[in-house]
Design brief:
heterodimer; A: alpha+beta; five-stranded antiparallel beta sheet; 10 helices; about 10% strand; B: alpha+beta; 3 helices
C-alpha cells in the first residue's frame, strides 16, 4: 500500500464523514484496486447520496469494471444533482462516443471542455467525435437511405400548408431512384423493405446474395415476424416492441415498426456493428413514417 | 459438450436483470431446462420464444441469409434474446429493460460452446 493511500485510509478511519474518500477512491481506481475503490465509493455514497462527485467517482469505477450501464446511470444521477458537472459530462460523452451516438457525445464533451478547457483528454475526444461526425455526414451523402426528400417532381412543401417545414434535401443522386412507390425515401438501397401487416410490400427492395430480388418474399415474412414479435412482447409483459435484430453469419436483419400498420426490414452485412444498424434503422423508420403520412 | 443445463443457465442469470433463462426444444417449443422464472411460466416463454425465432428465421432465410445465430427483441419494458444451440435447442433469456446486452451475448456464446 502506498504512503498516500495509507494516510488517506487512516484519515477516513479517524473521520468517516471526511470527503477524503473521493481522493482515496480515485487513487485506488487509478492503481486498479477496483474492489477496494468500489467499497470506498459505496461507503461514501451511503453517507453523501446527494454529492455529485461521489456518483462521478463510483461511475468511473464502474466504467473500469466494465459495467458501463450502471456507470451511465451514476453519471446521469450526478448530472441531475449538478447539471454542469464536468466529470459526468466527460463520462457520458465517452460512453456515447463508444456507443456510436456521436451527436450526444459531442454535446456532453463540449460541455465538459467548456468547464475544463485544459483537459487534453477531453479535447482529444472532442476532436475525434467531430471528425467522426464529419465522416458520418460525408457517408450520409452516399447512404442509400434518404430522409423524406421527394421524387421528382416534388409536391408542394408541407410548410406551405401550415405543417412542419419541409425537410432539407439530402444530396443523393436522384437518377438512381429505384423506388417502387413514387416518392419513397430510399434511394439506391437494395437492403430495405417496407411492408404492411398483411405482408404486402409498400416500398423498397431487397436482394439475396445471389442477386435474386427477394423483396416480396421478405415483405410476406416480415408481417408474420412482426405479428409474432408483438404477441411475444404483449404476453411476456415487455411493452411495445421497437425492434428485432436477427444476426446471421452472413448478414444482420433489423425489423422495426415505423407505424402500427407497417413493418420495415433493413439488411446489412456483418461489417456493420449492430448498434450502428439500429441507428440506421431509426433513421429509416423515421423516413418511412413521414413518407407514409404523406401518401396516406 | 455438457448436459448440466441448469448450471449453464445459472451462468446466464449472473448477467443481471434476467427474468428468465431457458433452453427450449426447437422441435416443439417445450422447455428443456429453466431458471429464474420471475413471474413467468416456462412453457409460455418457451412457446413464444420458439415461435418468434421461427418467424424471424424465416424472414432472414427469405432474404437469402443463413439461420440467425442471435435474435434480439427489444420492448419498452423488457427484451428477449434467443440463440441457437446446435440444431435442437434454443437458448432464451427474457430480461428487464436496459440489460447489458453485450454481456448477455458473451454469456450466451459461452453457454452455446458448453451446450452445443
Amino acid at each position: 500500500m502506498s504512503e498516500d493511500i495509507r494516510v488517506m485510509t487512516a484519515q477516513l478511519a479517524a473521520d468517516p464523514t471526511s470527503l477524503v474518500f473521493l481522493a482515496l477512491g480515485e487513487m485506488l481506481r487509478r492503481r486498479r484496486q477496483l474492489e477496494a475503490a468500489q467499497k470506498v465509493a459505496l461507503a461514501g455514497l451511503a453517507r453523501y447520496p446527494d454529492l455529485p462527485d461521489a456518483h462521478d467517482l463510483y461511475a468511473r469505477i464502474l466504467g473500469d469494471l466494465g459495467d458501463t450501464e450502471r456507470a451511465f446511470d451514476e453519471w446521469e444521477i450526478a448530472l441531475r444533482l449538478e447539471p454542469g458537472h464536468v466529470g459526468a459530462h466527460k463520462g457520458l460523452g465517452f460512453l456515447y462516443f463508444v456507443g456510436g451516438d456521436l451527436e450526444r457525445a459531442q454535446r456532453h464533451l463540449e460541455t465538459a471542455f467548456a468547464g475544463e478547457p485544459e483537459d487534453e483528454g477531453v479535447a482529444a475526444a472532442l476532436e475525434r467525435v467531430r471528425i467522426g461526425l464529419q465522416e458520418d455526414i460525408a457517408e450520409r451523402t452516399t447512404l442509400p437511405i434518404e430522409p423524406p426528400a421527394r421524387a421528382t417532381p416534388p409536391p408542394p412543401p408541407r410548410a406551405s400548408g401550415g405543417g412542419a417545414p419541409a425537410p432539407a434535401p439530402t444530396p443523393v443522386p436522384r437518377t438512381s431512384v429505384p423506388a417502387t412507390v413514387s416518392g419513397w425515401a430510399m434511394v439506391g438501397d437494395e437492403g430495405i423493405v417496407l411492408a404492411d401487416l398483411q405482408g404486402h410490400r409498400l416500398a423498397g427492395r431487397m436482394r439475396a446474395p445471389t442477386g435474386d430480388d427477394v423483396s416480396d418474399a421478405v415483405a410476406a415474412h416480415l408481417a408474420a415476424a412482426a405479428q409474432e414479435a408483438a404477441r411475444a412482447a404483449r404476453l411476456l409483459g415487455l411493452g411495445v416492441w421497437s425492434a428485432v435484430v436477427a444476426e446471421s453469419h452472413d448478414g444482420n436483419l433489423l425489423v422495426t415498426t415505423p407505424t402500427e400498420d407497417s413493418v420495415l426490414a433493413l439488411l446489412r452485412d456483418t461489417s456493420m456493428p449492430v448498434a450502428r444498424l439500429r441507428m440506421l434503422g431509426d433513421r429509416a423508420s423515421t423516413a418511412a413514417r413521414e413518407w407514409l403520412e404523406d401518401v396516406s | 459438450m455438457i448436459r448440466d443445463y441448469q448450471a449453464v443457465l445459472d451462468r446466464v442469470t449472473r448477467v443481471g436483470k434476467i427474468r428468465a433463462a431457458l433452453l427450449v426444444s426447437t422441435a416443439d417449443g417445450i422447455p428443456v431446462a429453466e431458471v429464474a422464472m420471475e413471474g413467468l411460466e416456462g412453457r409460455v416463454v418457451a412457446a413464444l420464444a420458439a415461435s418468434l425465432a421461427r418467424r424471424v428465421e424465416r424472414a432472414a432465410r427469405s432474404a437469402g441469409r443463413q439461420l440467425p445465430v442471435f435474435i434480439h427483441l427489444q420492448g419498452a419494458e423488457g427484451e428477449i434474446l434467443t440463440a441457437r444451440c446446435g440444431a435442437d435447442l434454443l437458448m432464451v433469456a427474457v430480461t428487464e429493460p436496459g440489460v447489458n446486452a453485450g454481456l448477455l451475448r458473451l454469456e450466451f456464446h459461452r453457454a452455446i460452446e458448453l451446450v452445443g
